[in-house]
């Protein structure tokens, strides 16, 4: 199953629950941007690639950016439309690479966060996407990405990762490793009429490490301004020069 099919047929139904309290998450993201001085400077247009239901798009709009939020999942975009209120966010239902190849707009900021970049089909497609992102940035524009480095293979029981649970749902991930990708099995137990039912779906994520990712960005023409790891996620901020 492709990532797009996985979201459409499975994950969209509980993605918001899995992501946690929306207000808390958007506040956290807004603080992330503020602490790193990610504010409109010149070109105030921002692209949020793989926006989901708006965890990055809404904070960017609050900070003064004119946000174009792009995602392949219509259900999550409908939630974003409900979440955005009066903020200036233009919602686009499209695959991110297709959107970049068909828009003539330039942005002062492009973000692709929350492990979206590893949902692409291969390292070659990631390379093409980064090249398109570089092309669509204004001079001195910034690119921010976050992803999970899956190059180190977990073994045994450590491949089972508890994600979230409450009285009615338990979500666990199981990771199955291959040379170029990891198959992520989302295992949801949900209580219906007092009985637990199991539902499983799987999709691939690209195995790419921070070092290789930085190399691709720098070879494309980006200067890395910061790289840090927060709760197991690699966060990279780069500048087009």
Explain this structure to me?
By secondary structure, the protein is an alpha/beta fold. The protein has eight helices and eleven strands. The protein has helices spanning 3-9, 15-19, 22-35, 57-62, 74-83, 96-102, 123-135, 210-220, and strands at residues 45-49, 66-71, 89-93, 107-112, 137-148, 160-165, 169-177, 181-192, 195-206, 222-230, 233-240. It is globular. The N and C termini lie far apart (38 Å).
The largest β sheet comes out as: 7 strands, mixed
Write the element-wise H/E pattern from the N-terminal end onward. Answer: HHHEHEHEHEHEEEEEHEE
Mean pLDDT: 97
Radius of gyration: 18 Å
Major sheet: arrangement of strands = 3-2-1-4-5-11-10
Unreliable segments of 5+ consecutive residues: none
The share of residues in extended strands comes to 35-45%
Distance between the termini: 38 Å
Helix content: 25-40%
Return the structural class: alpha/beta
Continuous helix count: 8
Number of DSSP E strands: 11
Question: What would you call the shape?
Answer: globular
Short key terms for the protein model shown above:
single chain; 241 residues; alpha/beta; seven-stranded mixed β-sheet; four-stranded antiparallel β-sheet; 30% helix; globular
Quick synopsis:
By secondary structure, this protein is an alpha/beta fold.
Topology:
Layout: H1 3-9, H2 15-19, H3 22-35, E1 45-49, H4 57-62, E2 66-71, H5 74-83, E3 89-93, H6 96-102, E4 107-112, H7 123-135, E5 137-148, E6 160-165, E7 169-177, E8 181-192, E9 195-206, H8 210-220, E10 222-230, E11 233-240
Parallel strand pairs: 1-2, 1-4, 2-3, 4-5
Antiparallel strand pairs: 5-11, 6-7, 7-8, 8-9, 10-11
Helix pairs in contact: 6-7
């Amino acid at each position: 199953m492709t990532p797009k099919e996985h979201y459409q047929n499975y994950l969209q139904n509980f993605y918001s629950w899995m992501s946690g309290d929306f207000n808390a998450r958007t506040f956290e993201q807004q603080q992330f941007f503020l602490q790193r001085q990610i504010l409109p400077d010149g070109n105030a247009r921002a692209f949020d690639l793989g926006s989901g239901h708006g965890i990055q798009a809404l904070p960017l709009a609050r900070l003064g950016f004119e946000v174009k939020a792009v995602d392949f999942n219509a259900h999550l975009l409908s939630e974003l439309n409900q979440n955005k209120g009066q903020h200036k966010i233009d919602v686009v239902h499209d695959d991110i690479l297709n959107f970049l190849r068909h828009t003539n707009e330039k942005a002062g900021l492009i973000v692709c966060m929350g492990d979206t970049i590893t949902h692409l089909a291969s390292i070659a497609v990631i390379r093409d996407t980064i090249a398109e992102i570089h092309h669509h940035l204004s001079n001195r524009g910034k690119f921010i990405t976050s992803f999970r480095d899956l190059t180190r293979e977990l073994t045994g029981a450590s491949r089972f990762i508890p994600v979230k649970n409450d009285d009615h749902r338990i979500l666990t991930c199981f990771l199955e490793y291959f040379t170029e990708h990891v198959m992520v099995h989302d295992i949801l137990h949900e209580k219906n009429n007092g009985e637990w039912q199991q539902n499983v779906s799987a999709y691939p994520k690209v195995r790419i490490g921070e070092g290789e990712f930085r190399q691709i960005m720098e070879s494309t023409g980006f200067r890395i301004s910061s790289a840090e790891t927060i709760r197991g996620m690699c966060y990279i901020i780069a500048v087009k020069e």
